[in-house]
């Protein structure tokens, strides 16, 4: 049994003690990541929030911003078995899920043997996921939602914990297939990865062009990560925070929004899964900052990465230069 475990606390003091312990462990996780990934603190924090909330993340950024390095580092820090899939147009579902092969056994009999694909890992990196065909992208849908896959008619459970961290290049659009809305909705967050600031890039140059190569060190175990995910769900949330989540999500739906710009500029808005993700994200952010319960500020901070891939603008809005982040900012404005 770990120090971040499982059983429902008998009193608030026990819960506070568990949250405080988790906060200290996450502080060491942050420090370990900081020795390998320079700058990008918002990206690192959002990715950690995704993991301790039990979700999947879509990282969008130009090449060379350490997206792959971040995923590899997280695998090491949490002691997760990780695999990487480089998505290409000719990638087939069996290349991700695995397949059955016919083998001849002793005595001449033949039998099928299942060879697991890379999806049978605790941390799967799908690099440039939008280069895979829709048929291959759909192979991840069941895995991301149900944590199991069906191969040759048989359901097969995936390891626990199971997380998909996918990357996407926003610049090159030739030879790409946009992710369907159903799959986008399975991602807990869309994390936009920007360029590092000058000082962070300077530190990166000093660390990566010298003789010594800094490696990440394990700071938590997979069992402790799972215990943290269970603890996050037990963190109390005030009614005002829940009401803010409901206001922001529901006002983003053009069919029932009171905001004229939403009705005119949004083609489709976030569903109930967005409310669930936002409720978990604010809890995880509070723990990451060492607090015992989330606030309205957590809702405002988590709304963009949770909602931006769960909304689509109308053609007219895109033509006018409106962005999804502009709409989310308007949804959050009454709670500032």
TrEMBL record:
Pfam families: AAA_3, AAA_lid_2. Residues 262-330 form the ChlI/MoxR AAA lid domain. Residues 56-189 form the ATPase AAA-3 domain. SUPFAM superfamilies: P-loop containing nucleoside triphosphate hydrolases. Keywords: ATP-binding, Nucleotide-binding. One of its GO terms (molecular function) is ATP hydrolysis activity. Belongs to the MoxR family. This is MoxR-like ATPase. It comes from Tistlia consotensis USBA 355.
């Amino acid at each position: 049994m770990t120090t971040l475990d499982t059983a429902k606390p008998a009193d608030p003091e026990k819960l506070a003690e568990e949250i405080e312990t988790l906060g200290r462990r996450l502080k060491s996780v942050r420090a370990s990541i900081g020795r390998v990934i320079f700058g990008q603190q918002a990206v690192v924090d959002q990715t950690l929030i995704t993991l301790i909330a039990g979700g999947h993340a879509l990282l969008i950024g130009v090449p060379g911003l350490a997206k792959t390095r971040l995923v590899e580092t997280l695998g090491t820090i949490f002691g997760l078995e990780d695999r990487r899939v480089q998505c290409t147009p000719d990638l087939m579902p069996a290349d991700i899920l695995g397949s059955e092969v016919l083998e001849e056994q002793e005595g001449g009999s033949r039998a099928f043997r299942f060879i697991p694909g890379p999806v049978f890992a605790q941390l799967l990196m799908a690099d440039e996921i939008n280069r895979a065909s829709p048929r291959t992208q759909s192979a991840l849908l069941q895995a991301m939602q149900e944590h199991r896959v069906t191969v040759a008619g048989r359901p097969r459970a995936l390891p626990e914990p199971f997380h998909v961290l996918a990357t996407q290049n926003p610049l090159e659009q030739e030879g790409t297939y946009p992710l369907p809305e159903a799959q986008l909705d399975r991602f807990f967050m869309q994390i936009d990865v920007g360029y590092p600031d000058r000082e962070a890039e300077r530190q990166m140059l000093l660390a990566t062009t010298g003789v010594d190569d800094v490696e990440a060190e394990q700071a938590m175990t997979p069992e402790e990560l799972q215990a943290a995910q269970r603890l996050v769900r037990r963190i109390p949330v005030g009614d005002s925070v829940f009401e803010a989540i409901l206001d922001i999500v529901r006002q983003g739906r053009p069919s029932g929004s009171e905001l004229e710009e939403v009705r005119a500029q949004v083609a489709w808005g976030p569903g109930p899964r967005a409310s669930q993700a936002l409720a978990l994200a604010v809890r995880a952010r509070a723990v990451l900052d060492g607090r015992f319960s989330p606030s309205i500020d957590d809702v405002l901070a988590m709304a963009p990465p949770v909602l931006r891939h769960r909304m689509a603008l109308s053609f007219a809005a895109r033509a006018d230069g409106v962005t999804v982040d502009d709409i989310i900012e308007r949804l959050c404005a009454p709670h500032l």
